[in-house]
Write a structure and sequence with these properties.
The chain folds into four domains: 275 residues, Alpha-Beta Barrel (TIM Barrel); 31 residues, no CATH class; 45 residues, no CATH class; 147 residues, Alpha-isopropylmalate synthase LeuA, regulatory domain (Double Stranded RNA Binding Domain), CATH 3.30.160. The chain is α/β, with parallel strands linked by helices and 559 residues long. The chain has 18 helices and 18 strands. The longest helix is centred in the last third of the chain and has 25 residues. Helix content is 39%, strand content 19%. Helix 14 crosses helix 15. The structure holds 3-methyl-2-oxobutanoic acid (KIV) and zinc ion. The site of 3-methyl-2-oxobutanoic acid has 9 residues, from strand 5.
Length: 559
């Protein structure tokens, strides 16, 4: 059996199915590069058959990140020839490529969604795993809704999958229904009963509908699973997937208990988490384990007293272990060389041009803010790297407001044709005025659904970090949405959300940058929709029945 638990990151596939988490191709590439730095074993880069955009994103990641000493690059494919072929052509450039094919096996899904008998599904699974193996030596098979599949039938399906050449058997609790005890028992039975199970990797894939995703994954590991499928910050369909950082840090911190670890570089966890929340606009709650803003804060007096005497009193992990230190490093007199060296220390490899741009922003910040620490620098660089390819570029923004004035903003933007355009707007507040002025220039109808602002560090001179979400006005999109195309339990078209992110000491400017980012994504998606037409697959979850892993009948949903 493997000597470590492989981490299969599905942030770019299952994670991207979170409402509003759709990422652009360049954002996906950025995340994939960071996942490689984090040291995950496998990156599920997307669902290539979903749309041309998805295929291209997976293909680019396979070419760029799928180096011989990099991670395996996997693509998802339904159990049909077209999906498997599309998947293969997308991942083929990777030095280590994997086809991940899946088919539902629960009676609930077979009867109500696929209208197939168990026998028909079994035959299809055998054929499609065989076909995938004829293309690629690394094939993962997932019986979707395994958690609500009749155990005997599931064991039969897995036997066929192994006989037909699957090298990994992934066991999804698609609807997050199982308890840790049940999930652990299921994995144990599979290892004991399925012929050849000892020759393949058994993998967990748990959703968090009852809050059990991480506990179920760890129960699977205790029962012999050697791959865990998870996402950064636990993002994903509905309540999300098992959170990578929680699984990894549980195995790391309680290594004596679990007796097995991962190959993840834990010091990259905080940075990866920040990157994913900046790109998706989904901020983890402050008390979220491992990466929440309060995860290492001690508020109670008695705790603070203990921590000052010895951190071991109330801390089971050090913030440095997940890369969450805030060492004070550079000031306004720091030179280019020190800045470049420090970026390398933080794990950034930037081109000369990118460093120049970042250095100019750093100097600008150091002029405005006395103390610049790593949190500021990481926020600036991540913001610089994650701004979408500009269609409209913000050149200037100016606002007048106050108790005696009607908030009024003037903006100057450069359009796709390079021509500068200026306009003004009035609003209920300065940010509303800026957005109205921008709307007058750009003319793309949209609705602002979320606006959040936070300070990166403490202090009155802190850098403001703005995240916004916008939706296309009055539209429900069936097409062009890679996220709905990859929906494994959704109920149809979703309204598409675009996220923007801006970082600046002036919060009005940060808000304007964030809005421009989201608008540019919306325009790019409208342009792409004109070019592509995506496929979509959906499922519904309806009642009843199956036997559980202890031989009792179960409804597969709440009573
Ligand atoms: O939750 C699920 O069943 C999935 C499969 C496609 C593996 O995401
Ligand atoms: Zn899933």
């Amino acid at each position: 059996m493997e000597d470590h638990v492989k981490i299969f990151d599905t942030t770019l596939r299952d994670g991207e199915q979170s409402p509003g988490a759709t990422m652009t191709a360049s954002e996906k590439l950025e995340v994939a590069k960071q996942l490689a730095r984090l040291g995950v074993d496998i990156i599920e880069a997307g669902f290539p058959a979903a749309s041309t955009g998805d295929w291209e994103a997976v293909h680019t990641i396979a070419k760029t990140v799928g180096t011989p000493d990099g991670p395996v690059i996997a693509g998802l494919a339904r159990a049909n020839k077209n999906d498997i072929e599309r998947c293969w052509t997308a991942i083929k450039p990777a030095a280590k490529a994997r086809i991940h094919t899946f088919m539902s096996t629960s009676d609930i899904h077979l009867e109500h969604q696929f209208r197939k008998s168990r026998g028909e599904a079994l035959e299809l699974i055998g054929e499609m795993v065989t076909y995938a193996r004829s293309l690629c030596s690394d094939v993962e098979f997932s019986p979707m809704d395994a958690g609500r599949t009749d155990p005997e039938y599931l064991l039969e399906v897995l036997k066929v999958a192994v006989e037909c050449g699957a090298t990994t058997l992934n066991i999804p609790d698609t609807v997050g229904y199982m308890t840790p005890e049940e999930y652990g028992a299921m994995i144990r039975s599979i290892r004991e009963i399925v012929p050849g199970a000892d020759q393949v990797t058994i993998s967990t894939h748990c959703h968090d509908d009852l809050g059990f995703a991480v506990a179920n994954s760890l129960a699977g590991v205790l029962s012999g699973a050697r791959q865990v499928e998870c996402t950064i910050n636990g993002i994903g369909e509905r309540a999300g997937n098992a959170a990578l950082e929680e699984v990894v840090m549980a195995l790391h911190t309680r290594s004596q208990f679990y007796g097995i670890s991962t190959r993840v570089d834990t010091t990259q966890i905080a940075r990866t988490s920040r990157m994913v929340s900046a790109i998706t606009g989904i901020q983890p709650q402050p008390n979220k384990a491992i990466i929440g803003a309060n995860a290492f804060s001690h508020e109670a007096g008695i705790h603070q007293d203990g921590i000052l005497k010895n951190p071991l009193t109330y801390e089971i992990m050090r913030p440095e272990t997940i890369g969450k230190d805030s060492s004070l490093v550079l000031g306004k007199h720091s030179g280019r060389h020190a800045f470049r060296k420090h970026l390398e220390h933080l794990g950034y490899t930037l081109s000369d041009g990118e460093i120049e741009k970042a250095f100019a922003r750093f100097k600008d910040l150091a002029d405005k803010k006395k103390l610049v620490d790593d949190r500021d620098i990481v926020a600036l660089i991540d913001d610089q790297l994650h701004q979408p390819a500009p269609i409209w570029v913000l050149d200037q923004v100016q606002v007048s407001c106050g108790t005696a004035a009607i908030p009024t903003a003037t903006v100057r933007l450069h359009g796709p044709d390079g021509v500068a355009r200026t306009d003004s707007g009035q609003g209920t507040g300065p940010i509303d005025a800026v957005y109205r002025a921008i709307n007058r220039v750009v003319g793309q109808p949209n609705v602002l659904t979320e606006f959040s602002i936070k300070a990166i560090t403490e202090g009155i001179d802190a850098v403001g970090d703005v995240t916004i979400r916008i939706e296309e006005e009055g539209k429900n999109h069936a097409n062009g949405n890679a996220s709905s195309a990859g929906d494994d339990s959704g109920t149809g078209p979703k309204t598409r959300t675009y996220t923007g992110h801006g970082v600046h000491t002036d919060i009005i400017v940060a808000a304007a940058i964030a809005y421009m980012g989201a608008l540019n994504k919306l325009i790019a998606a409208r342009q792409e929709r004109m070019r592509n037409k995506s496929t979509s697959y959906t499922e519904t979850n309806t009642p009843p029945y199956a036997m559980d892993w202890f031989g009792n009948s179960t409804h597969g949903r709440d009573a």
